[in-house]
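Project outcomes to date are best conveyed with an example. Our students and postdoctoral researchers have been running inverse folding experiments weekly, and each run begins with a structure described purely in tokens. The record below, which covers 184 residues, was selected by the lab manager from last quarter's runs and is presented without edits.
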């Protein structure tokens, strides 16, 4: 009986190890495959382990089984290497108010994410507003959610993709020119 339990435990553990290895490889492969297809108005989200599975049709969730900082670095590097998109970064407005006593590790995370996103403008929004925005976007555009092993609340990083080769200022000027009826 004990031998059967040990064998079953080993089989289960090897299966979990295989799943963990597969999840890690799959999210990186998925990111590499989908990046050329993504464009402005698509989103990539790097979320904590309690982030809910959304049912909006355009929202796809992938379990990474990876550390959140590792996923942030990989995603930002992949976006940086792309020729067509740049990130517009949103984070939960609640994060600066989460106390260390209630969420051990939050202070270190805040510093690490600030370093990982250095040079990026980060727009804070209440968590519920971001989820609602993503649900709305997912009705028309693809949203890739990369779920991590993070167990600190309000630590998700939300990246709305925008066009890399067309600036916000250029778009604003184009709209002004069009409304004035003038051609360049």
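After processing, the design step wrote out the following sequence:
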């Amino acid at each position: 009986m004990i031998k059967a339990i040990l064998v079953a435990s080993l089989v289960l553990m090897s299966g979990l190890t295989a799943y963990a290895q597969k999840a890690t490889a799959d999210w990186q492969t998925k990111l590499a495959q989908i990046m050329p297809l993504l464009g402005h108005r698509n989103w990539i989200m790097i979320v904590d382990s309690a982030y809910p599975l959304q049912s909006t049709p355009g929202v796809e969730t992938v379990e990474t089984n990876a550390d959140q900082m590792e996923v942030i670095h990989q995603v930002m590097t992949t976006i940086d290497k792309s020729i067509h998109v740049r990130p517009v970064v949103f984070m939960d407005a609640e994060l600066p108010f989460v106390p260390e006593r209630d969420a051990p590790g939050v202070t270190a995370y805040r510093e690490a994410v600030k370093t990982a996103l250095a040079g990026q403008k980060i727009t804070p929004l209440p968590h519920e507003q971001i989820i609602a925005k993503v649900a709305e976007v997912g009705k028309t555009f693809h949203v890739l959610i990369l779920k991590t092993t993070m167990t600190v609340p309000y630590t998700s990083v939300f990246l709305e993709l925008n066009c890399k080769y067309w600036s916000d200022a250029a778009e604003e000027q184009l709209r002004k020119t069009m409304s004035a009826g003038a051609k360049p």
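The beta strands are 43-47, 59-63, 85-92, 122-125, 143-147, 157-163. Residues 2-180 form a domain with the RbsD-like fold fold (CATH 3.40.1650.10). The training component of this project remains on track.
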